[in-house]
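can u do me a favor
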């Protein structure tokens, strides 16, 4: 899981980041709206925590901008403003939830977990991901295509699941490294290409129709047949 924290107060950003890390999140921090938006558009995040009053570009403006292109990424607005009009403005800008400062970290994490459950429910229809005749049941940790069970290693399974969760969206090699391996490799590494080829041999090749596509110079995308 990966989170973006856009917060210009160093102490606040630090304690939020540490709390997220204690719950197994990889965390990036931006101290202004321009950098925050750039990070959000460069990497794949499971949740974005966005302070209203950040410099250079307000959290409200960043939220509006991101929501146009990223309708499914949960955004939690953080602000010292706690009036009803401010809450309404945040939600109208596209935020999924609103938390007024000061807040308890346990409340923050509860809000984040609630957002993630909601997104998983809408994306996965429970714990199921589907692309064409390929299905992944996360609770059972099973993958089938055309009713035939496909055996994957743990890493292959994580990679396939990540691609399925981003179905229809191009995913870069660096995003895959950060999300599936949760680490940064030398930019020249070909480990992603090696694993893509491994799961293609199991998921695509035996069935004659590709679901995993290469986007030259960018990365990979999983698409329904004919999409």
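np, heres the sequence
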């Amino acid at each position: 899981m990966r989170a973006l924290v856009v917060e210009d107060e160093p102490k606040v950003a630090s304690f939020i980041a540490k709390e997220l890390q204690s719950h197994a999140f990889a965390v990036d921090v931006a101290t202004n709206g321009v950098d925050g938006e750039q990070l959000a558009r460069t990497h794949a995040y499971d949740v974005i925590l966005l302070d209203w009053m950040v410099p250079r570009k307000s959290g409200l403006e960043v939220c509006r901008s991101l929501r146009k292109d990223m309708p499914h990424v949960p955004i939690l607005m953080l602000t010292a403003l706690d009036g009803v009009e401010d809450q309404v403005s945040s939600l109208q800008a596209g935020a999924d939830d609103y938390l007024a400062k000061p807040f308890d970290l346990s409340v923050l994490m509860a809000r984040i977990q609630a957002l993630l459950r909601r997104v998983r429910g809408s994306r996965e229809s429970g714990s199921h991901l589907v692309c064409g005749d390929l299905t992944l049941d996360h609770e059972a940790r099973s993958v089938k295509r055309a009713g035939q069970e496909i055996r994957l290693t743990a890493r292959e399974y994580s990679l396939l699941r990540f691609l399925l969760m981003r179905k229809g969206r191009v995913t870069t090699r660096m995003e895959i490294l950060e999300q599936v391996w949760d680490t940064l490799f030398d930019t020249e590494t070909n480990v992603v290409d090696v694993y893509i080829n491994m799961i293609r041999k199991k998921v695509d090749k035996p069935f004659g129709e590709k679901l995993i596509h290469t986007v030259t110079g960018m990365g990979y995308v999983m698409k329904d047949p004919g999409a």
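The domain at 128-222 is CATH 1.10.10.10 (Arc Repressor Mutant, subunit A). hope that helps!!
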